[in-house]
Amino acid sequence: MSKRDYYSVLGVSKGDDVKDIKKAYKKLAMKYHPDKNPGDATAEDKFKEIKEAYEILTDTDKRRQYDQFGHSAFDGSQGGFGGRSHHGHGGFEDMFGGGGFRQQGGFGGGFGGFEDIFNQGRGRQARPQKGQDREFTFTVDFVDAVQGAEKVVELPINGEQKKINVKIPAGIKDGEKIRFGGKGGPGVNGGPAGDLLLIIATRSHAFLKRDEDNLICTNHVDMITAALGGETEVNVLDSRFKLKIPAGTQSGRKFKITGKGVTNRKGVTGDLLVVIQVDTPTNLTDEQKAILTQFQATL
């Protein structure tokens, strides 16, 4: 019985490149592979036919010979490759990175297992895999995040509650992670354990805020100091100093003190921004109200 044209077998045209041929072959091989059609002799013959076509059309020299002489290029009549059987073991594994077919399940003739061909692991020792990483949110005080600290935290690790000593680096930010290698989920097939990751969340502070590496401090002054000028004491973490308030200072005015902010994990230090909040007096006495009334009349 005469052979079908290789291009027709794969459903491609002579102008198609190797990429198109491989794509067509993969689709047909998945459909007709004996592992998917057990006991179907027609499917087995069809698989042999498409594999033979694939071997010829993806080999530059063989394809050139075939385009010139047709099937006779390989039966010895045209001085072609001659005599080689194209029902061998190459082709499918070559395309998908395998190392040669393995005979499986009674199919003989060198057909590889369908799942094995597509690297899904049947008949092959599974590779070691790293275990899953475990993540937990770890909430720390504002001051500890800025200055650093050491804490003990109890976490569920592989079904057990375990205590872990945690060193909080000075300057760590919200969302940054502290990693503990090998404290996560167990490895698979002898692989290493995963990691434990603590995601940092920082508690809010009564009067301090953080903007990247800058510290923002709100300081209250009375309206007389704001109007006439004077000084206010600033307390930030371990730092205490006097800040001069110019006359006529308005609420919301900022004073920058360079290099008094947060030193981050790279050793870069930000600035301190002191925001002035002018307080309006309440519960005034009659005398105080009279004085303010007189002052208002002068404005």
UniProtKB/TrEMBL annotation:
Residue ranges of every copy of the J domain listed in the record: 5-70
GO biological process: protein refolding
Domain of life: Bacteria
GO cellular component, one term: cytoplasm
Spans annotated as Disordered: 74-97
Keywords, comma-separated and alphabetical: Chaperone, Metal-binding, Repeat, Zinc, Zinc-finger
SUPFAM superfamilies in the cross-refs: Chaperone J-domain (SSF46565), HSP40/DnaJ peptide-binding domain (SSF49493)
Annotated signal peptide: none
PROSITE patterns for the chain: DNAJ_1, DNAJ_2
GO function terms (MF aspect): unfolded protein binding; zinc ion binding
Protein name in the entry: Molecular chaperone DnaJ
Species, as recorded: Vibrio renipiscarius
